[in-house]
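Researcher: Please predict.
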Amino acid sequence: MNKFALLTLAIIFVTANTPLKAQQAREAFGKNRFQFRQFNWEYLSGENFDVYYYDSRKGNASETLTFLEGEFDRITDLIGFPPYFKTKVFIYNSLSDLRQSNVGLNRATMQVGGETEFIRPYVEVAYTGTSVSFKEELLLKISELLVNEMMYGGN
């Protein structure tokens, strides 16, 4: 019985001083969100923006593209920075559709070891019902993207 107790204590002592590795919650792999439907994306292209839409919402996408192209000079003059590339704007029909997207899922995570995550010029906006709130959200997201691109580089 003494040998069994000594062996058990030795195993506990060895494993207690050994660092353990486990999967962390912030690791990203595979599909991380439930996706209940397939989106068949189409897009409209302008001089400064590509607007992506689905479910035959070409009217909303066309209105969005016209609005953004009209506001482009005002936004870039206010910020004092023109973007390097065309900005991709993804328009979702509802907030629940936006929450199915894996795009930008780990955008807010901190990088360690000197890794740099380059800013990708895309914006995701859900059409929540009113045109005024949708346009305000669009302007906020585009302005935020331009400021981040100006501060951290875009290429």
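Model: The chain is about 40% helix and 15% strand.
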